[in-house]
Specification:
- The protein has 381 residues and is of the alpha/beta class.
- The protein is built from 9 helices and 21 strands.
- α8 (250-261) links the parallel β12 (233-239) and β13.
Length: 381
C-alpha cells in the first residue's frame, strides 16, 4: 500500500481527479526520448522500434529527436495546469526496464528505458495503475524493475507486485484538508492478459480477476472494506475487453453496477479499448467503460480509422467525499500527432461529441459540447 500527502488542495468541497486511458510510452515513443532502449523487437512484422518513428514521420512530418521529457504531454500540460486536479491517475501500459527477457509467445512487447521515467513525472502523475497486458512484456525481472523505478520516482502504483498481496494492495492518496482517494487496479483476461501473469504468494504478477461473477464482487467488496474508511473516494480501475468496437458487454455493465451497489466504489475507470467508448452516470457515480488510448506510437498505422483512435481524452471528475457523489464530469479531447497531445479542431470535437452521445444514451447519459471544445457528461433526468 502506498500513500502520498498532497501539500496543497483546491479550495472547494469536492476532490478533483484526472484520469486517462492507456499511456504507452514504450517502443516508438521511447525511441524519441532522451534515453532510448535497445530498439530490437520480436513482433511478427516489425523488428525495430525505430520503424514506428519512421511510420509516424511519414504520415505527419519529422519529430525532433531527442524530445524533452514533457514533450509527449503537449497541450495537455496546459490543461492540467488550468484544471489543477488534486489527484492524477493513468494506466501505464508499458514495462519500464532494461531487461531483455521478452515474454515468449507474446506478439507485442512494450518497453521504456528507466532513465525516461521523468516523462511520466513531468505531468505530476500521482498513481500508475498496472494491471494490464503489457506490464510483464519483458518478464518478471522487467516487472520488478518497473516497480522499483516507479517507486524511485515517487509514483504510487496499484495492480501489480512481487506477490499477490502486493498486487492486490490499493494505492492510498491523501489530499490535505479533503480526504483520501483509494485506487484499486484489476485486470481481466479478456483484455489480453495471459493467465500466467496472475500474481501469487511466491510469484510476481498482476491483480488478475478470475471472472466477473458475484463471487468476485464479494471478494472485491471484502478488499475494499478492509482498506477503506467512511469518506474515502474509491476508484476501481479495470483493464477489460477488446481493443476495437463500441459494444459494451452486458457482463461489464452488471459488474460495474455491482461494484457501486455492493462494494461501495465511486468511480469505474475502464480501459483497454484503443478509442473512447460510451459513458454512464449511474446513481451519481461515473462509469467510464473505455477511456481509449491516451499516448501511443500508432500514428500513421492504417486500419480502424473509423474509430478515431488518434483522439485522446482527458477525464476530469469532481467527487464530494462525504457522499461519493459526482458533481462534475468534463472531457477535454486532444489529438495524438508527432507523438504528443495537440488541441483538437472543432470538427473533431463535434464528431467525438456525436459519437459519445450516441453510445452514452444507451446508458441514459448525455454528452454535450461546449464552445471551448470540451465535453460535459451528465445523467439524463
Amino acid at each position: 500500500m502506498s500513500q502520498v500527502i498532497k501539500k496543497t488542495a483546491r479550495p472547494s468541497e469536492h476532490i478533483a481527479l484526472f484520469l486517462c486511458g492507456d499511456v504507452m510510452t514504450g517502443r516508438g515513443i521511447d525511441q524519441v526520448l532522451p534515453y532510448p532502449s535497445d530498439p530490437a523487437l520480436y513482433e511478427p512484422y516489425v523488428r525495430n522500434a525505430k520503424e514506428y518513428v519512421a511510420i509516424a514521420e511519414e504520415a505527419n512530418g519529422p519529430i525532433p529527436k531527442p524530445v524533452n521529457f514533457s514533450y509527449i504531454w503537449g497541450d495537455g500540460l496546459k490543461e492540467l495546469q488550468r484544471m489543477a486536479p488534486d489527484v492524477r491517475i493513468i494506466n501505464l501500459e508499458t514495462s519500464v526496464t532494461t531487461s531483455d527477457e521478452f515474454w515468449q509467445g507474446k506478439g507485442i512487447h512494450y518497453r521504456m528505458h528507466p532513465k525516461n521515467i521523468p516523462c511520466i513525472s513531468a505531468a505530476k502523475i500521482d498513481c500508475c495503475v498496472l494491471a494490464n497486458n503489457h506490464v510483464l512484456d519483458w518478464g518478471y525481472k522487467g516487472l520488478s524493475e518497473t516497480l522499483s523505478t516507479l517507486r524511485g520516482a515517487s509514483l504510487n502504483t496499484a495492480g501489480a507486485g512481487n506477490t499477490s498481496q502486493e498486487a492486490k494492495a490499493p494505492a492510498v492518496l491523501e489530499v490535505a484538508g479533503k480526504g483520501r482517494v483509494i485506487i484499486f487496479s484489476f485486470g481481466i483476461e479478456s483484455s489480453g492478459i495471459p493467465l500466467e501473469w496472475a500474481a501469487s504468494a511466491d510469484r510476481p504478477g498482476v491483480n488478475l480477476l478470475p471472472d466477473l461473477s458475484a463471487r468476485t464482487i464479494a471478494r472485491v467488496k471484502d478488499e475494499v472494506q478492509a482498506a477503506t474508511r467512511p469518506g474515502d473516494i474509491i476508484v476501481a480501475s479495470i483493464h477489460w475487453g477488446g481493443n476495437w468496437g463500441y459494444h459494451v458487454p452486458r457482463q461489464h455493465v452488471w459488474f460495474a453496477h455491482k461494484l457501486i451497489d455492493s462494494a461501495g466504489v465511486d468511480i469505474i475507470h475502464g480501459h483497454s479499448s484503443h478509442h473512447a467508448m460510451g459513458i454512464e452516470v449511474y446513481k451519481d457515480k461515473p462509469i467510464i467503460y473505455g477511456c481509449g488510448d491516451f499516448l501511443n506510437d500508432y500514428e500513421g498505422i492504417r486500419g480502424h480509422e473509423e474509430y478515431r483512435g488518434d483522439l485522446a481524452l482527458m477525464y476530469f471528475i469532481g467527487i464530494v467525499p462525504a457522499s461519493g457523489q459526482c458533481v462534475s464530469l468534463k472531457i477535454v479531447p486532444s489529438q495524438i500527432r508527432h507523438f504528443r497531445l495537440n488541441q483538437v479542431s472543432r470538427a473533431d470535437a463535434l464528431w467525438l461529441t456525436e459519437t459519445l452521445s450516441k453510445e452514452s444514451k444507451k446508458f441514459n447519459t448525455d454528452v454535450a459540447l461546449t464552445k471551448e471544445n470540451n465535453l460535459i457528461v451528465s445523467a439524463i433526468k
